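To close the section, here is one more complete example, presented without commentary so you can practise reading it yourself. The ligand is NDP.
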Amino acid sequence: MRPEIGVLGAGAFGTALAIALAQAGRRVALWSRDAAQVRAMALTRENTARLPGVDLPAGLTPVSDLDEAARAPVLLLAVPAQSLRRLVEENAHALQGRVLVACCKGVELGSGLLPTQVLDDVMPGGRHAVLTGPSFAADIARGKPTALTLAMAGRGDDALQEALSTHHLRLYLEEDVIGAQLGGALKNVIAIAAGVVLGAGFGESARAALMTRGFAEIGRLAEQRGGQAATLFGLSGFGDLVLTCTSEKSRNFRHGQAIGRGEAPDDSQTVEGVMTAHAIAADADPDMLPVTCMVSALLRGKVGLEQAKDLLLSRPLRRERG
Ligand SMILES: NC(=O)C1=CN([C@@H]2O[C@H](COP(=O)(O)OP(=O)(O)OC[C@H]3O[C@@H](n4cnc5c(N)ncnc54)[C@H](OP(=O)(O)O)[C@@H]3O)[C@@H](O)[C@H]2O)C=CC1
Ligand SMILES: O=C(CO)COP(=O)(O)O
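Output:
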């Protein structure tokens, strides 16, 4: 039978969304590029590699043929932001005419584009949205209450909101696609900074300062790029910043924490904030985005930890707002 929703990318987030939607009675096809992973999921009814410990419900079908998943009218694209263009370019024919929902947080290196802008670039004229906001995959998969932002240009799509919401997974519509995506992308960079600060023992007061000043700079960037700073007060901004900067479940936070402790971070994990920091810092004014630029410089080894702290602390004193 034709799936109602296709999920492209069987990582932690894609699998969690597929589980939640299938549990709520939708017919879901979950595609992975790894045929062995698909066979294992079909056999064990679990994604042991990316989301162990949660059963795949009966309504979820793992598929290795992308065309099979793409029969669904709505497709969730749950791959890292740096992989989105390739996925869409390689499968443009199958994706034609579908509602494409980017389920990733980041800024493309080189182009500086946000996920829906990448979709618009590769498939102009299509219906494109983004699902973002505070959620750990394991929470969604286990049916814990979660609220996310579904951002799309224009008035929004009530039917899409309904199709992707469940009793435990509440989606809120947002028109400011730029602000929502910058919130999701930049909170990962600030979370790396928060992890560094705690890992290095600079203290929780310093983390609160970084989160707040980081939040201010995301707002400045949103306005510069045609979004609205007010969007950042929502789930995709404040909500996700709080979650990611305060939990050791966050890969971005843990990445920073390892650096702060002088340890090697786990490079096998998807840590979106690294590339996003570099993508934004590439053409940013450090006065406007001091935290993001410093995170990028630290990750590239251009500054050391103590030097980064001193450089941030020796910036000229200024008004809090504006
Ligand atoms: N995990 C979470 O709690 C949350 C994640 N997100 C966001 O979701 C996005 C995905 O993260 P997450 O699922 O955690 O990452 P994972 O590392 O768990 O999985 C990434 C998946 O993407 C696949 N992939 C990568 N490149 C391609 C490609 N070119 N074509 C097809 N598949 C590809 C990988 O396949 P392979 O295994 O073959 O490499 C893997 O299955 C990120 O932007 C993240 O910020 C958002 C909210 C929560
Ligand atoms: O985006 C997330 C929470 O909303 C997941 O955070 P990490 O990618 O840092 O694990």
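Once you have examined the tokens, check your reading against these statements. The chain has two domains: 5-175, 178-313. The mean pLDDT is 97.
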